[in-house]
Amino acid sequence: MNFRIRIDESICIGAGRCVDLAPELFDQRENDGIVVLLQAEPDQALYDKAVRAAAQCPARVIVIESPKP
Predict the structure, then answer these.
(1) Which stretches of 2-69 are assigned E, i.e. beta strand?
(2) Which residue of 21, 26, 53, 69 has the smallest Cβ count within 10 Å?
(3) Which residues fall within 8 angstroms of residue 55, CB to CB, at 6 or more apart?
(4) Where residue 57 sits, what CATH number does that domain have?
(5) Could you state, in chain order, the average pLDDT of each consecutive group of 10 residues for the chain (69 residues)?
(6) Tally of domains within the chain
(7) Beta-carbon neighbour count of residue 2 at 10 Å?
(8) What pLDDT is stored for residue 46 in this prediction?
(9) Any idea of the CA torsion for 20, 22, 24, 30, to the nearest 10 degrees?
């Protein structure tokens, strides 16, 4: 089972680290730079990239939810 990603747009500051680290998962809105989630339930192969992006987000916008065993 795949993991899940949640974001909280309301606290995003538009730093863009997530896009730099995981462009398959995140983008930014053109008008204000706020994060856009491209895949809420991505393939497991992208897990490390998602975790790295979440850890590097200065506003802690990204939440990674692992599947329940």
Answers:
(1) 4-7, 26-28, 35-37, 62-65
(2) 69
(3) none
(4) 3.30.70.20
(5) 92 98 98 98 96 98 85
(6) 1
(7) 15
(8) 96
(9) -40
Those residues whose C-beta lies under 8 Å from the C-beta of residue 58, and which sit 6 or more positions away, are: 13, 15, 17
The C-alpha atoms of residue 18 and residue 34 are separated, in whole angstroms, by 11
The residues, ordered by sequence, that sit 6+ positions from 7 with a Cβ below 8 Å of its Cβ are 35, 37, 61, 62, 63
Helix or strand or coil: residue 40? Answer: coil
The pLDDT, as a whole number, for residue 68 is 59
The reported pTM is 0.91
> Can you tell me the distance from the alpha carbon of 13 to that of 8, in angstroms, rounded to the nearest whole number?
11
